[in-house]
């Protein structure tokens, strides 16, 4: 068997051989394969074979001689795997005719194989975050969020949701990305899309603009996660979460401290300056 995927397709390959101590086959060789419940035969073919399908039974015949120690061209039976197929199936086939009077009763004239029915592939999403190069009090910045789908999985299906929570000190001002619909509620930014993300592909990036409050702390920690899209393991898995710790540069936008005199201090300063001027006038 080829891999059988629940709700998908698969195939079986059958080969008829002739013993090395015998003579070539004569007349019609017949192969009969009865597919098990859960599999539906869709086509059957092989070079030199004529095949037909009746419900679960596939019958292929050939009058081409099979030489001693030789084999006939392989037969390929394509199947559809039903969504209700069991976790394991057993397929059996038999060969008869060709001048061998002991087939199909002999064990060598029969073959069977068990195959595991695999669950359908699902997307495996992950998220990344690129913080702004610099942030400063009273300034602005922009985060970039990217969602990837692992190669060898399946395209995403349904709604993919990215949720970003901004820390105290940052205020979200805008969020957008091709194919994304974004909303802002307080410190939380939510972006959704329904267009599939191909396996091994990435969604267009999300740009999240922020304003830095004048009283922002020295460092801010921003987090984001991705969920939905057919990946039932998100957002619990580590790959479904991203975070960035960004320092706030206190040099830019910071006002240098100046002494605060108050009214008494100003009066004393004025009195001192006045006395100094009076002494200079007396000397003159």
Overview of this structure, please?
With 284 residues, this protein is mainly beta. The protein is built from one helix and 18 strands. The radius of gyration is 38 Å and the shape is rod-shaped. About 4% of the residues have low confidence.
Quick gist of this model?
The protein contains one helix and 18 strands. It has 284 residues and is mainly beta. A hairpin with a 2-residue loop joins strand 5 and strand 6 (57-62).
What are the key terms here?
six-stranded mixed beta sheet, 284 residues, mainly beta, 1 helix, five-stranded antiparallel beta sheet
Care to count the β-strands? 18
> Can you list the strand order of the major beta sheet?
1-9-8-3-6-5
Radius of gyration computed on alpha carbons: 38 Å
Number of helices: 1
List the SSEs and their pairings:
Blueprint: E1 4-5, E2 9-14, E3 29-34, E4 39-45, E5 50-54, E6 57-62, E7 75-81, E8 88-97, E9 110-118, E10 125-130, E11 140-149, E12 160-165, E13 170-176, E14 181-185, E15 188-193, E16 206-212, E17 219-228, E18 241-247, H1 262-283
Parallel strand pairs: 1-9
Antiparallel strand pairs: 2-7, 3-6, 3-8, 4-7, 5-6, 8-9, 10-11, 11-16, 12-15, 12-17, 13-16, 14-15, 17-18
């Amino acid at each position: 068997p080829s891999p059988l995927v629940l709700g998908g397709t698969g195939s079986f390959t059958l080969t008829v051989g002739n013993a090395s101590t015998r003579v070539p086959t004569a007349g019609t060789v017949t192969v009969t394969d009865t597919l098990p419940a859960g599999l539906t035969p869709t086509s059957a073919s092989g070079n030199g074979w004529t095949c037909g399908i009746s419900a679960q039974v596939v019958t292929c015949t050939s009058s081409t001689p099979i030489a001693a120690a030789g084999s006939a061209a392989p037969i390929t039976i394509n199947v559809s795997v039903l969504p209700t197929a069991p976790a394991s199936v057993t397929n059996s086939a038999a060969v008869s005719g060709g001048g061998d009077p002991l087939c199909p009763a002999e064990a060598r004239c029969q073959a069977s194989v068990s195959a595991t029915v695999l669950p359908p592939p699902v997307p495996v999403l992950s998220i990344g975050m690129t913080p702004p190069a610099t942030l400063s009090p009273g300034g602005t910045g922009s985060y970039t969020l990217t969602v990837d789908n692992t190669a060898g999985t399946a395209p995403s299906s349904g709604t993919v949701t990215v949720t970003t929570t901004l820390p105290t000190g940052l205020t979200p001002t805008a969020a957008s990305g091709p194919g994304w619909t974004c909303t802002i509620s307080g410190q939380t930014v939510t972006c959704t899309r329904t267009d599939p993300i191909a396996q091994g592909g990435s969604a267009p990036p999300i740009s999240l603009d922020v304003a830095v409050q004048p009283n922002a702390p020295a460092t801010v920690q921003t987090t984001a996660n991705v969920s939905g899209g057919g990946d039932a393991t998100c957002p619990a898995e580590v790959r479904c979460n991203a975070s960035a710790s960004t320092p706030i540069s206190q040099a830019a936008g910071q006002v240098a401290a100046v002494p605060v005199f108050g009214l008494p201090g100003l009066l004393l300063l004025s009195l001192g300056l006045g006395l100094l001027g009076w002494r200079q006038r007396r000397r003159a």
